[in-house]
Design goal:
The structure holds two protein chains of two kinds. By secondary structure, chain A is an alpha/beta fold. Chain A contains six helices and nine strands. In chain A, the strands form two sheets. Chain A has a five-stranded parallel β-sheet, with helices on both faces. Chain A has a four-stranded antiparallel β-sheet with strand order 2-1-4-5, covered by helices on one side. In chain A, strand 1 and strand 2 form a beta hairpin. In chain A, helix 2 runs parallel beside helix 4, helix 3 packs across helix 4 and helix 4 runs parallel beside helix 5. The termini of chain A are far apart. In chain B, 74% of the residues lie in helices and 0% in strands. Chain B contains 25 helices and no strands. The radius of gyration of chain B is 24 Å and the shape is globular. Classes of the chains: A alpha/beta, B mainly alpha.
């Protein structure tokens, strides 16, 4: 299965001030990197695509996912996965329950899927673990598997590697990109680390110049 | 649905206060269908003005409404100025906080047991210092000037203002302000008073006004520590309301209107005082003096706060001592023998009040939690905090003297065919519990990282799912803490229980207060101690439950600030 994400004539304003405007086409398995200093609206762009834009902003334009205009949909119906700097595993749930949170309610064999996802992340038998006891790299992998289990058609990555130490960073980076490529997901990566852009290997857009 | 909940909270708080006021107004003007009177007449006001010593009652209430908050605020401000960084300050802060949960009545009894002519303080000083072998014939408790009453209120309200200030301080960047002032050469206490206090005060203004309103219309503390002939206006009104002669209930309504005027005047006087102090402070701050009796003010702040904490602790100790005292002659410091007899006989009469107390507290707290969480969820989803107006409405039941609108609510309930009893009492408690539950929960609710909701939404959860599966469990600890506050507030309520229950819904608090005039000290000890201990049970549960529930979830056990 392949997917594509199109941003068509997207303009985001804060009151009268224009924050950014962007047109982009991201093909299946492709990573578009958006770079820019803090305050340039990188994260705001991701909030907009995910359907989580703060009411303080106004946006014009369309987001097309597989040709369908999703701009008017609530976030839970957009099929867009989101990853932050922090893994944000729900602290009140076990690792297994965190993954189950991602699996759709009507999906058959939900637990088997969680088991398979843990195996793919090299975390066999981690179902009952407290997320707080995991290492940074393990948390990041669980977070990605949770997003993938929700079967998104596109990925939004909000500086997801910036809080990992250097050795771990390249490992997780290649894990994430490999998975996204394998599932044919178009990805929108926001970062200020040139190494991220290089590893992503896709086009780069510079914001706020 | 949520918008409805938010509106319902506003209506549930403002509605009864306004309706209560209107009905008190009608009944004061002589319109009382229950008595077959439908025409306006001024006889209730005439009867009120003929009350002996009415002016003294009014002045007493007014004085209490100004002096009590003034002293409590001064202690709070000076203490914070002196102790913002020191270790002893941190210790005192932690020592004072639990006393917020102790009901007014229990604290007042504790103080009475200390300062009375045969109280612990005189026993400790006799006969070696005072030469006394008999308790002196002095009216220390229930003194004519209401000094004991005001002292009792100060002991109770200071922890309240302290906690309100502590929760507001992070909002004014106190640390940064202080650092700037100190690098400019200001001594620590002066630096705090000049750079932090002016920013802090606007944030605690509403709680201060609530103290003004409470102290100017106080009933329970006044019945325990206050003067008797004449009593404060609030106590006088309650007596008229309880008079078997129904005509007197109209006088009570007229009195309730006067009470409203007294409390509003107290707030107005306070407001004028604020303006004058602000002007003076302006000169003082611009004057540039780096130290104004810095050391002395610091010592004063710490000593006075330590006295408040000390009086509370020893007062509760005195309650405990009396509840088990056997033969105890003056001036012996401790009873000669100890007995559990009073507890045994006391507990027999305790079942019904204890059940009522627990049931009312539980129901009122659950209702208040539903309202507060509904309103906060509405705010958070819209991304807009409660407006200034909404906050004032939230404080309305605490800013309008309770006796005024509670009497009116009783009239309204009677007209609607609702008889005083258990459910009206529960509804009345919600009025006072809801503001505290909302206030203690709102910071935690707003501090909850919005990214949790973003993650859950993009994983396919609807807003309702986010609430039930993410926000509610993650906020369990602050919700339980808010519930404990609610339970404590409910347990301490005297007036709504007494008025809306028409004296037929006995709780620990109404029973304890009823013992105030001429009750046996040993029984008072038992009842007041129970009253003080019950809220503590709530707080212990609120601390222990999350630790138990999250024993396998490390991140949930760490308190996040």
């Amino acid at each position: 299965m392949t997917h594509e994400l199109v941003l068509s004539g997207v303009n985001i304003h804060r009151q009268a001030e224009r924050l950014l405007s962007i047109d982009a086409h991201i093909g299946p398995g492709e990573v578009l990197t958006v770079m820019g200093p803090s305050g340039s609206g990188k994260s705001t762009l991701l909030s907009y695509v995910a359907g989580l834009l703060d009411p303080a902003f106004t946006a014009a334009g369309r987001v097309l996912l597989d040709g369908r205009d999703i701009s008017g949909l609530p976030p839970e119906e957009r099929r867009i996965g989101l990853m932050f700097q922090d893994p944000l595993l729900f602290p009140h749930l076990s690792v297994g329950s965190n993954l189950l949170f991602g699996v759709g309610r009507r999906v058959p064999e939900r637990r088997a899927r969680v088991r398979a996802a843990l195996a793919a992340a090299d975390l066999v038998g981690f179902e009952d673990r407290d997320p707080a006891t995991l290492s940074g790299g393990q948390k990041a992998r669980v977070a990605l598997m949770r997003v993938l289990l929700s079967e998104p058609h596109a990925l939004l990555l909000d500086e997801p590697f910036s809080k990992l130490d250097t050795a771990l960073r390249s490992e997780i980076r290649s894990f994430v990109f490999a998975r996204a490529r394998a599932e044919g997901l178009p990805s929108l990566l926001v970062t200020h680390d040139p190494a991220d852009a290089e590893a992503a290997g896709g086009p780069v857009i510079q914001l706020g110049d | 649905m949520l918008r409805l909940a938010a509106r319902a909270v506003i209506v549930a708080l403002a509605g009864p206060v306004i309706a209560g006021f209107l009905f008190v107004l009608l009944s004061a003007c002589g319109i009382a269908p229950a008595l077959g009177r439908l025409g306006i007449d001024g006889s209730a006001f005439v009867a009120l003005t003929e009350t002996p010593a009415l002016v003294r009652s009014i002045l007493l209430s007014l004085a209490s409404g100004i002096l009590t908050p003034l002293v409590a605020l001064l202690i709070t401000i000076l203490f914070l100025a002196a102790a913002h960084s020191s270790r002893s300050g941190d210790l005192l802060r932690r020592a004072v906080s639990p006393f917020l949960a102790v009901p007014h009545a229990a604290m007042a009894f504790g103080l009475a047991f200390l300062i009375a002519p045969s109280g612990l303080i005189l026993r400790a000083l006799s006969p070696w210092l005072t030469g006394l072998h008999e308790p002196p014939d002095l009216l220390i408790v229930n003194d004519r000037w209401g000094l004991a009453m005001m002292a009792g209120l100060v002991v109770k309200e200071t922890p309240f203002l302290l906690l309100m200030s502590l929760s507001a301080l992070p909002q004014v960047q106190a640390g940064e302000r202080l650092a700037v002032a100190q690098t400019l050469g200001y001594r620590p206490v002066t630096a705090w008073l000049k750079a932090v206090a002016p920013a802090l005060y606007p944030l605690i203004r509403l709680p201060v006004y609530a103290v003004v309103a409470y102290a100017s219309s106080v009933v329970d503390v006044a019945m325990i520590l206050g003067p008797t002939t004449p009593p404060t206006l609030g106590v006088a009104i309650l007596r008229w309301a309880n008079d078997p002669d129904l005509e007197r209930s109209l006088v009570a309504s007229a009195g309730a209107l006067v009470q409203l005027a007294v409390s509003l005047s107290a707030i107005a006087i306070w407001w004028v005082g604020e303006a004058i102090v602000a002007r003076l402070a302006h000169w003082w701050i611009e004057g540039g003096s780096r130290s104004t009796g810095d050391g002395a003010l610091g010592v004063l702040g710490k000593v006075s706060m330590a006295s408040v904490a000390g009086l509370s602790v020893v007062g509760l100790g005195a309650l405990a001592l009396w509840s088990v005292a056997g033969y105890w002659r003056f001036p012996e410091l401790l009873p000669r023998d100890v007995t559990l007899e009073i507890w045994r006989t006391g507990l027999r009469n305790l079942t019904q009040p204890l059940e009522n107390t627990a049931a009312i507290a539980a129901l009122a707290t659950v209702l208040a939690l539903v309202g507060a969480i509904g309103a906060l969820e509405h705010e958070v989803r819209r991304g807009v905090r409660a407006s200034r107006t909404a906050l004032t409405i939230l404080y309305l039941p605490l800013l309008v003297p309770a006796v005024t609108f509670l009497l009116g609510l009783n009239v309204a309930a009677a007209l609607a065919g609702i008889r005083p009893g258990f459910w009206p009492v529960v509804a009345g408690h919600v009025l006072f519990v809801l503001p505290y539950v909302y206030l203690s929960l709102s910071e935690a609710y707003w501090r909850h990282d919005p990214r949790w909701s973003a993650v859950a939404r993009t994983l396919g959860a609807r807003p309702a799912g986010v609430f039930w599966r993410v926000r509610l469990p993650m906020l369990l600890t602050p919700i339980l803490a808010a519930a404990a506050v609610g339970v404590a507030v409910s347990i301490g309520q005297y007036l709504p229980t007494q008025v809306l229950g028409a004296g037929r819904v006995p709780t620990i608090t109404t029973e304890a207060v009823a013992l105030a005039s001429g009750g046996d000290r040993r029984y008072i000890g038992v009842w007041a101690l129970l009253q003080a201990v019950l809220p503590a049970v709530g707080f212990i549960l609120a601390t222990a439950l999350p630790r138990l529930i999250w024993r396998h979830r490390r991140a949930m056990r760490e308190t996040r600030r």
